[in-house]
Design brief:
With 338 residues, this protein is an alpha/beta fold. The chain folds into three domains: 42 residues; 245 residues, Rossmann fold, CATH 3.40.50; 40 residues, no CATH class. 34% of the residues lie in helices and 27% in strands. β18, α5 and β19 form a beta-alpha-beta unit. α2 packs across α7 and α3 runs parallel beside α6. Bound molecules: 2-acetamido-2-deoxy-beta-D-glucopyranose (2 copies). One 2-acetamido-2-deoxy-beta-D-glucopyranose binds next to β15. The site of one 2-acetamido-2-deoxy-beta-D-glucopyranose has 6 residues, from β15.
Length: 338
């Protein structure tokens, strides 16, 4: 009996704690952040910057272009930190979203829902699929597809004509071996694109998400940018890096370091770069009716190289070159327009 009583007494405060603590502490933090955002928005609108992971953020900060706001430096939400400041006298908010399409879409949607935003500039590094381009070059694609919306098919089933493409794994037999395998084939589905400009609650199928034309035009007209060609005093690229505007990019939750799959992406989608976030940021921005541009420095050959993937050696150089283009692009943006 006594033991029961003791247990009751122990359980009760425990229950209270469970009920009280989460109910108050979490919303308080969030409420504080939302109040800060209200104040930050009084001084908007801002350009929204989305980058992905720490090396890209470091390269961006190392350029010194970002001047943090003196009082409202940052606000934390859902575990992400949104920094407030200026680049070339233009107000910006930037966030490091984290790797993959879920993080990219979630952070972009938060940026657009909560802050007074004019448009999204997304930047980072990417794998190079195009043999006419080199590591260190920066690509601003005109369109980008999600090439990871797969259906892994029954090898005996029919191929749905609605697929954008398919990959026959069963007959992939290089070098020649003993015939087909049971992995069968993969069908590439279209995205379901919801848009403020379309009918509510009705998605339309989408393969290529188009970059905003006026921003792409601005990117085409950027003056020659001095891009970095050397990792250090003893390691330089064989060619001077350049900016290329208007190609195609491909995104999936897949890191590609495989020559055969790289070739498939080139042949099937005519894509020049491959990454894990761009299409999510672009699709989310377009759904909400905001202009968007992608700026990605090429860090490696996505498996097209003879030896080790070069991301470890040239990743920081590619990130730096992307940040340099971001700076030039923001400089070239008119002050009042989005
Ligand atoms: C330059 O970078 C390469 C690749 O990271 C490294 O192997 C080499 O030691 C570096 N050289 C100097 C002089 O720092
Ligand atoms: C590869 O890049 C070159 C140089 O920018 C371009 O002319 C070519 O169209 C690109 N290839 C594809 C498949 O887009």
């Amino acid at each position: 009996m006594a033991a029961k009583l003791v247990r009751k007494c122990l359980v009760l405060p425990g229950l209270l704690l469970l009920l009280v603590v989460p109910a108050f502490s979490f919303p308080l933090n969030r409420r504080k952040s939302l109040n800060e955002i209200k104040e930050i928005n009084h001084k908007g609108p801002y350009l929204g910057l989305v980058t992905v992971y720490p090396p890209e953020e470091k390269a961006f900060l190392d350029t010194g272009i970002f001047k943090p706001h003196k009082t409202h430096r940052f606000v934390d939400l859902s575990g992400r930190r949104f920094w407030v400041g200026k680049i070339h006298e233009k107000k910006v908010i930037y966030v490091r979203c984290g790797v993959g399409m879920v993080n990219a879409a979630a952070a972009t949607q938060q940026m657009l829902d909560l802050f007074d935003i004019k448009g999204i500039v997304h930047f980072g590094i990417a794998g190079n699929l195009n043999d006419s381009l080199s590591i260190g070059d920066v690509s601003i694609p005109k369109q980008i597809a999600h090439t990871g919306l797969w259906e892994w098919l029954n090898p005996k089933g029919k191929l749905d004509p609605n697929y954008v493409a398919h990959l026959d794994v069963a007959s992939y037999n290089v070098p020649k071996g003993k015939g087909s395998n049971l992995l069968g084939r993969i069908g590439y589905s279209k995205e379901e694109f919801f848009s403020e400009l379309g009918k509510p609650n009705a998605a339309r199928p989408l393969v290529w998400a188009q970059m905003s034309q006026h921003w792409l035009h601005l990117a085409h007209n950027l003056k020659k940018i001095e891009l970095e060609g050397c990792v250090n005093s003893s390691l330089c690229l064989p060619r001077k890096p350049k900016l290329v505007v208007g190609l195609r990019g491909s995104t999936a939750n897949i890191f590609v370091d495989n020559a055969a799959y790289r070739n498939f992406l080139v042949r099937t989608f005519q894509a020049s770069s491959v990454d894990m976030e761009s299409s999510a940021v672009v699709m989310t921005s377009l759904s909400n009716g905001f202009p968007v541009i992608v700026i990605r420095g090429l860090s490696d050959l996505a498996g097209g190289q003879p030896g080790e993937n070069a991301i470890g050696i040239f990743g920081s150089l590619a990130a730096l070159n992307a940040a340099k283009v971001v700076a030039q692009f923001i400089k070239a943006l008119p002050h009042d327009t989005s």
